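Review form for a predicted model. The reviewer records the input and the model, then writes brief findings.
Reviewer: anonymous (R2)
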Amino acid sequence: MIASLRYEFAMQLRRPSLWIVYGLVVAVMVTVLDYWSLDLGVYEVSAPKEAMGVAAQIVVTLLPIVYGCMLADRLPRERVLRVDGILDATPSGRTARLIGKYAGVCAATAVPLAIAYFGRALLYVFVEGQPSALGWAAVTFLASILPGLVFVGALAFAGPLLLPPMVFRVLFVAYWFWGNVIPASLMPTLSHTVFSATGEYVRYGLLTPIPPGYGRASAVLDFLRPGYTPATAWLWIGVMIALAAAVLSLVRLHASRSES
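Model under review:
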């Protein structure tokens, strides 16, 4: 597992397309979102903790799309290159290789996203003179961004088992906007529910107060939108981890059936 993790991490991190696509999307964020806003006054925040929460909200609007799309071709790679038989002949088991591959490619694919987020935090520290922002950035990343990436990574990792990678990428982009970005008042959506991967429940349930004037109109699937509390924040984290584990279990089951 460790050998697979290290190899997959290094290989994914060296992909030029990974950095090019992330760079293009960050350029879009800088252009159309408040990514470089220093005081974030439009959000009426002043404390470093709140500023890092807003920065996380901006980052997870678009960058997880790149994260998921760049993972969509990694699982079937051995089959495409026709080296899966050679790997099966090694002493390592399929489960260990699967976990190592998943962890390695997900960690590598999240590196540019983390650079974009912590780069924003460093800029805030430099301009505002608030070094505590780095600590809050780390807490916010681990608590509100990472669990969502764990689930999205598993989903994108397994998707090409059912669909060609390019088709999956198109559907994944549609899923991200429908299930995470589009307001629930516009259509039935998983946005703002405990199944949304944006980390909203942790940000407003554990880390920062709900922004002034922030409210949610009554919409379909409201039973999946409990109030922002510490309990629902931990519930969201548990849901993300459980969904990721379920998806990876299905991947392993698929591999077992393929062996037979």
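Findings: The two ends are 23 Å apart (CA to CA).
Further findings: Residues 49 and 136 are 5 Å apart (CA to CA).
Recommendation: see findings above.
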